[in-house]
Amino acid sequence: MPAAERIAVITGASSGFGAAAARALAREGFRLVLGARRLERLRAVAEPLGAAYLPLDVTDAASVEAFAAAVERVDVLVNNAGNAFGAESIAEADEAKWRAMYELNVLGVLRTTRALLDRLIASGDGQVINVGSIAGFEVYPGGAGYTASKHALRALTRTLRLELLGRPVRVCEISPGLAETEFALVRFGGDAERARKVYEGMTPLTAEDVAEAIAWVATRPPHVNVDELVLRPRDQASALLVHRRAPASAP
Ligand code: NDP
Ligand code: 8X3
Fold first, then answer.
1. 35: which strand partners?
2. Which residue, judged by its Cα, is nearest atom 18 of ligand 1?
3. Is 135 in the pocket of ligand 2 (CB under 6 A)?
4. Is the pLDDT of residue 3 over 90?
5. Domain 3-231: what homologous superfamily?
6. CB of 178 shorter than 6 A to ligand 2
7. Which 3-state string (H, E, C) describes the chain?
8. How much is the pLDDT for 197?
9. How far apart, in whole angstroms, are the C-alpha atoms of residue 105 and residue 165?
10. pLDDT category, 250, cuts 50, 70, 90?
11. Once rounded to an integer, what is the mean pLDDT over residues 78-98?
12. pLDDT digits (tens, 9 = 90+) for 93-115
């Protein structure tokens, strides 16, 4: 089916990768249904694209049900909604933050996928694209709550691939490294200076870099399943190994 008749649903489309993916998939001719909690931000993304948008909190089963009930057809589901909360060591771990990350990054994807799976199958060429992270297969000090959730998401994604074998639904996980979005700001509870330091002296990925990868995966022919796609800045060789340039000294 030509992209013009295909419908992509994107969760967490009010900022970062989700908003950029909406623009990239619109350029490819997809019709869009966008979801997130901040409706004004979502509207600002959706309206210029002529996209449908609906409130969605993936941590709330009733919200996911109401969202899914309004989606008649879906060919591509981009499970992008996600965040990290905090960077405490295991010794200092805050259980509420761990629980919140599991609810959002794992159960949120489970709920949304399960709610739309019948329509993805009925489309005859469905696709689930989960936005994972290098945190899905790497670890770093202070990252256990987030990496545990992204490791779990990776397990979910790989299991779904096995369970849908023989059904007309492709399953992909895109795993970016450091990318400059609102992610670090959210992680550090709005501390802009701490968030800025995450990208200091290096060139991170942009939301558009990741969105282009999502659009590429979504436009492969039906027989091609991109199982996994890892995308890092040139300056990042692993979660722990980042090349940072010294700031230019004042004249
Ligand atoms: P942003 O903080 O910019 O975007 C997060 C998006 O998720 C927002 O649109 C937010 O919308 C949405 N969201 C958060 N909570 C919920 C919820 N309960 N229900 C629905 N939507 C929600 O960060 P990114 O764009 O960077 O993050 C997108 C994904 O990419 C996440 O899964 C993240 O883990 C992953 N990632 C990010 C990397 C990075 O370095 N930036 C690297 C690798 C992966 P709203 O608040 O309006 O609900
Ligand atoms: C975000 C990448 O390295 O901050 O998923 O965990 S990292």
1. 11, 54
2. 57
3. yes
4. no
5. NAD(P)-binding Rossmann-like Domain (3.40.50.720)
6. yes
7. CCHHHCEEEEECCCCHHHHHHHHHHHHCCCEEEEEECCHHHHHHHHHHHCCEEEECCCCCHHHHHHHHHCCCCCCEEEECCCCCCCCCCCCCCCHHHHHHHHHHHHHHHHHHHHHHHHHHHHCCCEEEEEECCHHHCCCCCCCHHHHHHHHHHHHHHHHHHHHCCCCCEEEEEEEECCECCCHHHHHCCCCHHHHHHHCCCCCCECHHHHHHHHHHHHCCCCCCCCCEEEECCCCECCCCCECCCCCCCCC
8. 97
9. 24
10. low
11. 98
12. 999 999 999 999 999 999 999 99
Atom of ligand 1 nearest to the CA of 60: 18
Pocket test for ligand 1, best of 9, 32, 37, 199 (most atoms within 8 A of CB): 37
CA of 80 to the centre of ligand 1 (A): 6
147: tokens are 């990496």
Catalytic site residues? 146
